[in-house]
From TrEMBL:
Pfam families: Arg_decarbox_C, Orn_Arg_deC_N. Keywords: Decarboxylase, Lyase, Magnesium, Pyridoxal phosphate, Spermidine biosynthesis. Belongs to the Orn/Lys/Arg decarboxylase class-II family. SpeA subfamily. InterPro entries: Ala_racemase/Decarboxylase_C, Arg_decarbox_C, Arg_decrbxlase, De-COase2_N, De-COase2_pyr-phos_BS, Orn/DAP/Arg_de-COase, PLP-binding_barrel. This is Arginine decarboxylase. Pathway: Amine and polyamine biosynthesis; agmatine biosynthesis; agmatine from L-arginine: step 1/1. Its EC number is 4.1.1.19. It catalyses: L-arginine + H(+) = agmatine + CO2. Residues 146-393 form the Orn/DAP/Arg decarboxylase 2 N-terminal domain. Residues 679-730 form the Arginine decarboxylase C-terminal helical domain. Gene3D superfamilies: 1.20.58.930, Alanine racemase, Lyase, Ornithine Decarboxylase, Chain A, domain 1. PROSITE patterns: ODR_DC_2_1.
């Protein structure tokens, strides 16, 4: 009979579609972690292994490739906790302990941890690499970096960057009016710093920017298109000032990554060679050739090919030299952003990685520019870069909890011994309809008998295991068909599904116990089902690039790293959006391809399971959206408390900061609460008072009509208001 079923349904197709069906089968209801008791007696389809035996913290280090993407800031300590080491002289901070401490103070998950010292460290590293390259090459100029604020607009972060960069005149880059308004208010304290004004500009933008020099702010107005020149000249004439002007060049050098279209001749931004000549002529005619001092280019983000960087720098240097020869008072060559980071830790040319160091990047640019300037016999420019991603990605860590796990496999109902013995006989007997209860159907019972018999029949041979697998698929499919035809009850269908899963589990158990080498396809069948872990997070709010451009971020548990993670999982977020799931992960150290599952631990009753998503400090907060009205996160700013340079905020004396919380090696400087439901709703024009009044009216109607106690109505209204003012995420 078993073979007949396989034949009927075509083993091959069933096999090919196996994984989809498999997924359907494993869908279970959402199960809160709190009610762990309901999981007792549940059999979980993990690889039967000697749990934890022989598993070392080192295995976790390599499984999650921590050194590759995280060094030197993130590491796993010997007790199996993920630690942050914000600076070279800081002691590692146990992130799990930190989060638990913060949670105890009433700050809920998910939370974003900020480590300003890491930004400071990255900035000094970038500056140091350029200084080193300049010294090594005997380059007769300096490096003057700017931070593109669009990467992360956080006020404290930008102030921290200016403060850390003051000794080396580190400045800011803006691309819109709002960004300019913000940057102008901050940069005054860094008199030597550049304020690079990119982006499309109207008259108001120009007016503000041309006045910057009078304020002592070194603003450079970069022309993105020729039309902007007239507006600029007009505003400069009105103000009676000589602005410092830059030009954005459309380079021919292209890069192949996601942002490749930012570069090349069809790029959205920048001036073509003929535009540049036209602008130069116009400026000369106006007697303002010496206002042109900067050449800018930006060929994209996360550039993974060093020769693209040096080629672009070289091409730009030739343009720079030509402009100098045409009479411009050239001083700056702005190489834009594009310096990447190694998200997957593979140090490869994959879009999520980076095969070269910051030092290689700096040396490549410095040498390329120097060689062109020597050839063209012009003084070398001040090298400017607008590195955003490379500067701020590492400083922010997203911590979120797992709510529940889907894909727990339930025990199928046990077959009666007598029933088992007479399975075939029963099928015949069941054919007499009147003997069945209304919920039991002939077809349903027949399917159930068949699946039980098949489970018992699995033998430790490849052929038998393969057959059982195909059979389980076909039986499930038959049960579905019968159910859709109204022939079997829901309970029967569920029983068949569970029995089929038991059959697969038996195959896995037999395979695990067998010493013989199993053929690949059987091994594939024996893969444990992929579990879905529900996470207290919105991908759209907190890691939008995962969804928008398939960006990979390292994700891993931040504790229990001394235990073997036995479950292969994908993550599903809180939104009602099928795109709100994470099913691509970085792979273990030594492997290059991305992985389709993440190894996680079994959930433990009564213990939170915390995951971290790393390298999220650039673009994610800014691009995140309020899908399903999930708002911004609680943000906790942390510094190390036992390093010699403990005051991250420089000028602020240690005593003036009153840390809310101190723990081993750390002090929490600030906690900013994420948006409340009401704040998110207000952005969509909902008015708090109207909402409360609406519910109040409904409740008093219910009470006066006797459908609800007055007391209950009142406390319901109170709870409603309280929720309006609370965090939008699950409170576990
Ligand atoms: C986005 C952008 C940057 C920052 O790029 P990163 O790759 O993050 O360093 C710099 N300059 C310009 C003009 C940009 O548009």
């Amino acid at each position: 009979m078993a073979q007949a079923l396989v034949d009927h349904y075509g083993g091959d197709t069933a096999f090919k579609t196996g994984y989809a069906l498999h997924d359907v089968l494993l869908k279970d209801t959402l199960r809160p972690v709190d009610s762990f008791s309901s999981l007792e007696g549940v059999r979980v389809g993990s690889i039967p292994s000697v749990e934890g035996a022989g598993w070392k913290v080192n295995d976790s280090r390599s499984l999650y490739a921590v050194k590759g993407w995280g060094g030197p800031y993130f590491l796993v300590d010997d007790s199996g906790r993920l630690c942050v080491k914000p600076s070279a002289d800081a002691a590692p901070v146990d992130v799990y302990k930190l989060c638990r401490d913060v949670r105890q103070q009433g700050v809920q998950f998910p939370m974003l941890l900020r480590f300003p010292e890491i930004v400071r460290g990255r900035l000094h590293e970038l500056q140091g690499c350029f200084n080193h390259a300049i010294a090594l090459a005997g380059y007769q100029g300096v490096f003057s970096g700017v931070f593109p604020v669009k990467c992360n607009h956080d006020c404290g972060l930008i102030e921290g960057i200016l403060e850390a960069g003051r000794p080396c005149n580190f400045g800011l880059e803006v691309g819109s009016k709002a960004e300019l308004l913000m940057a102008m208010s901050k940069i005054g304290t860094s008199p030597g710093a550049l304020l690079i004004c990119n982006g499309y500009k109207d008259a108001a933008f120009m007016r503000l920017a041309v006045h910057c020099w009078e304020l002592g702010i070194k603003a450079v107005i970069v022309l993105e298109q020729t039309q902007e020149l007239d507006v600029l000249l007009e505003e400069a004439a009105k103000a009676g000032v000589q602005p410092v002007i830059g030009m954005r060049a459309k380079l021919a050098t292209r890069h192949g990554g996601h942002w490749g279209t930012t570069s090349g001749e069809n790029a959205k931004f920048g001036l073509s060679p003929s535009d540049m000549v036209a602008v130069m002529r116009k400026l000369t005619a106006a007697g303002m050739a010496d206002c042109l001092q900067l050449l800018h280019f930006h060929i994209g983000s996360q550039i993974t090919n060093l020769s693209v960087v040096t080629e672009a720098a070289s091409e730009a240097a030739y343009l720079y030299a030509e402009l100098a020869h045409m009479g411009a008072a050239m001083r700056y060559l702005d190489c834009g952003g594009g310096l990447g980071i190694d998200y997957d830790g593979t140090a490869s040319e994959s879009h999520s990685s980076l095969p070269f160091s910051i030092q290689d990047y700096a040396s490549g640019i410095v040498c390329a520019v120097q060689s062109v300037c020597t050839e063209k016999a012009i003084p070398v420019p001040t090298v400017v870069t607008e590195s955003g991603r490379a500067l701020v990605s590492h400083h922010a860590v997203l911590i979120f909890d797992v709510i529940s796990r889907q894909g727990q496999v339930c025990q199928p109902p046990a077959a009666e011994p007598e029933e088992a013995a007479q399975a075939e006989h029963h099928v015949v007997k069941a054919a007499r309809k009147e003997e069945l209860s209304p919920r039991l159907t002939v077809q349903g019972q027949a399917l159930l008998q068949a699946s039980r018999a098949a489970t018992r029949a699995v033998q430790p041979t490849a052929a038998s295991m393969r057959e059982a697998y195909l059979l389980s698929l076909s039986l499930k499919e038959q049960a579905l068909k019968a159910f859709k035809g109204g022939c079997i009850s829901l309970e029967e269908r569920a029983s068949v599904d569970l029995e089929c899963e038991a059959m697969l589990q038996r195959v896995r158990d037999i395979a695990a116990a067998s010493d013989a080498a199993l053929p690949d396809d059987v091994q594939l069948l024996c893969m444990p089902p992929v579990a879905t872990y529900h996470i207290n997070l919105s991908v759209f709010r907190s890691a939008p690039d995962m969804w928008a451009i398939q960006q990979l971020f390292p994700i891993m548990p931040i504790h229990r790293l001394d235990e073997q993670p036995t479950v292969s999982a994908i993550l599903a977020d809180l939104t009602c959006d099928s795109d709100g799931r994470i099913d691509r992960f970085i792979s273990a150290a030594g492997s290059k391809a991305s992985a389709s599952t993440l190894k996680l631990h079994e959930l433990k009753p009564g213990e939170p399971y915390l995951l971290g998503m790393f390298l999220t400090g650039a673009y994610q907060e800014v691009m995140g959206s309020a899908h399903n009205m999930l708002g911004t996160l609680n943000v906790v700013t942390v510094r190390s408390s036992n390093c010699s340079n403990s005051s991250v905020f420089g000028d602020t004396p240690e005593a003036e900061i009153s840390p809310r919380l101190r723990g081993p090696g750390y002090a929490v400087d600030t906690v900013e609460h994420g948006e409340s439901a009401c704040e998110v709703l207000t952005r969509a024009n909902h008015v708090r008072q109207d909402m409360v009044e609406g519910v109040r009216a409904t409740a008093s109607a219910a009470a006066s009509q006797g459908r609800m106690e007055w007391g209950a109505a009142k406390s319901m209204l109170k709870a409603y208001e309280r929720l309006l003012d609370s965090y939008t995420y699950l409170s576990l």
